[in-house]
Design goal:
Blueprint lengths: L3 H12 L4 E2 L3 H8 L4 E7 L3 H14 L8 E6 L4 H10 L9 E6 L2 E6 L1 H4 L4 H15 L1
Parallel strand pairs: 1-3, 2-3
Antiparallel strand pairs: 2-4, 4-5
Helix pairs in contact: 2-4, 3-6
């Protein structure tokens, strides 16, 4: 498990932008089963989270269409929440970082680590904005 002094500033990059921090399995269940659209970010300490995932996700929210709900949990820190999120992300294997869009409780779009790694934040944002156009 990562220390709080390392993780909290990385969490703040999303929570300061309106994301709800999920730390328990019950919070994850409630958040991902909401009506409307919910964007879930499994945050991470890795370089691709810092350089592409978090900035790309934040930039994706500048478009006209946006998810109704924004939530996040941190891999290696919010272990209970991440385990439950990964259960609900099946059949996708565990991946951090990752970004998932749910609509009315159903997973409709997924960006796994291999979609994030090596891509610039702008490409992540464009991918998510296309999903928002389709589902939000």
């Amino acid at each position: 498990m990562y220390p709080a002094d390392l993780v909290l500033p990385m969490k703040a990059e999303l929570t300061d932008k309106g994301f709800t921090d999920l730390t328990t399995s019950a919070q994850v269940d409630e958040a991902l089963k909401q009506s409307g659209t919910t964007l879930l970010v499994i945050n991470s300490v890795c370089g691709c989270a810092a350089g592409a995932a978090r900035p790309g996700v934040v930039y994706s929210l500048t478009g006209e269409k946006k998810p109704d709900h924004l939530v996040t949990a941190f891999a290696g820190f919010d272990t209970e929440a991440v385990a439950e999120a990964r259960r609900l992300l099946a059949p996708f294997p565990p991946s951090s970082p990752c970004v998932a869009l749910f609509k009315d409780g159903e997973l409709v779009h997924m960006l796994e680590r291999h979609h994030i790694e090596g891509n610039p934040a702008g490409a992540i944002a464009a991918n998510l904005q296309a999903a928002f156009e389709e589902y939000c």
